[in-house]
Write a structure and sequence with these properties.
Length: 177
Amino acid sequence: MIPKKEAEKIERAIVFLVDNVKKSGKNPKPVILHSLETAFYLLERDYKSDLVIAAILHDILEDTGVGEDDLSQEFGDKITDLVKSVSYKEEIEDWTKKYQDVFSRTLGQGKDALILKCADIYHNGFYIKLVEDMGFQKRLVEKMGCFLKASEGSIENEAPWQDLKKQYELENKRVNS
């Protein structure tokens, strides 16, 4: 059972996400659903509420008009730093360089950022089969593999990493057979 104070903080993050996606959301994917799936996946595995809140908000900088200062004012620097570390930089145009930059920043931010990005990639992995372009499916699977390799020495004993590894093995076999 989640303590009341923690539950209230989590609920405040959900309301903040929904309000801002409704106001200025710019991603056609189901951002709210994906964010909640990622967050509740971590919550079910007993990760701390700050990490769960960061998971709720992990796409907000990329997919809405919310800025880093707004996020910091609402949720503090720790959560903002986690969200920033897993957010892609728009100025990087090359897709591979873009995700390599995020992986590098999550490594620099530490274990919680790596777990957050791992859970994000894991939940995005369920959408790979929906992508019509097989070449892009292969690139998404390659991204999974790159993350696993980059984070192996840091979080390989964590449940999200283990789940992502299993998913990667299945998807890699499927797209390369």
